[in-house]
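Illustration: Cation acetate symporter.
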Amino acid sequence: MSNAASIVAVVLVSLASLAVGAFGLRLSRTMSDFYVASRGVSPVLNASAISGEYLSAASFLGVAGLVLARGVDMLWLPVGWTAGYLLLLVFVAAPLRRSGAYTLPDFAQLRLESDLARRASSLLVVAIGLLYLIPQFQGAGLTLRTLTGAPSWVGQLAVAVVVSLNVLPGGMRSVTLVQAFHYWLKLLALLTPLSFLLGAFGRRSGGPDVGAVLVSDWVEPLRGDHALYLTYSLVLATFFGTMGLPHVVVRFYTNRDGRAARRATLAVLVLLSGFYLLPVAYGVIGRYVAVDLVAAGRADSVVLELPSRLFDGPLAEGLTALLAAGAFAAFLSTSTGLVVSVAGVVSQDLVRWGAGRRPGHRDGHRDGHRHGHRQGIRTFRRSTVVVVAVSLALTVASAGVPVAHAVELTFAVAASTFGPMLLLGIWWRGLTARGAIAGLVVGGGLSMGAVVSTTFGIATGGWFGVVMTQPAAVSVPLAFATMVLVSIATRGSTPEHVARTMVRLHAPEHIDLNRGSFHPERWDRPAAAAEGTVDATQHTAYAGTDATARRAPSTARRD
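Result:
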């Protein structure tokens, strides 16, 4: 079969993504545009963008492959990935938006009033983002290898280049439009071929080719060793991991207010529920006509290979090309969101471009303000290039890890770290900085140990090996318990302004209250204060300010 149509489809998706991103560039003028699209994204557009970003290589290719290979137990993946947004809707979405933060380290600084907690959160954001980028690049290499026979690095490099070209010009403003476009493209790319496949499959006679997979293992749940533990661990990882993914959380900061954040989350639940029916159907059809892919170790490619199993000629080529376009869009959309979130944290917390800068003192207030913006954008772009390059290198080092399992491990790390910190930080005023840091170390250490063990093939046996395969059932409860117990033991170090912070998180925006001084978007705080337009204690700079300035109470501002 000729692969020309698939190659053309991949090129067209890349060009269309760049064109949409270029349109977003026209709208990106400030640092707020680059990081949170000026907090002006409508709920419908944001829901499409969140869904486009969230539906990654694991969703488009991995779910079908796992259903094909392992059967009914793998239905927990789409269920858990969708249900994670239900927890976000109920517990996190509105308070997180009201916090006014840009990133998870911002939230840690606001809630815990600790520089150490912020730095620990920054390192975890980078680690989780890189871990999630690896399967996106892996999936791109798998797709182009399946379609053209080219080496895997070709697809990985292609995604890296297109992602960089999307992110570098316009940041979050461009990425939002691109990701919304990608969601509807992915939905169309799966839905259209499926309608043809179901028609052909319905006319097919005979039962499934059992091949290397036993029917009983495929259709009956909780079969095999330690199946109950592995299932509960997967449920915990997917339910709590969603709220801890930095590229998911950062999208809530782009909503206009807490009410808009809830509406966007509800729309995401609808969009994801409809989408996840499709890859499951591909896995079931593949069980009947392409079970040989399991023995060959190519289960992840079942979505791309099904059209050629049921059709011939131009129809098979056209359907495969459409699926290739959707798969490439999946890699691009998730990768762009991850790169934006990780590069933002690298440029603001790890590089700390603004440390000690008072732009108004050297260049004049307004010129210094513009210089600060230009410097911040340049550092963001440099960080983008570094993040993409490091991700490519890590992808090569972890080539043997299946796409979907790599994502499972990333969810386990997020569920064991930021999940407990967000839930306890939002709903329990007793959480202290020491408690949160201890929980991040315990949960993150155990889950990251599992990632290293799996990535580099460190052989382990018995229950320890099972926990290393799926650590969330152990690491998530331990993280919660550690945060609670250490916070109780250090209750004397409760953040000074925790009462005001809790009001900020939970009081609706229309209520006239003192919500504190945390405004990370006010890059011009020193210059503005020098001009006398605002109170110097009223704003908190995003980077390069000391802890006292970040915690300074506000009496002048009323939101």
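Reading the tokens back as a structure: Confidence is low (pLDDT under 50) at residues 353-366, 523-559.
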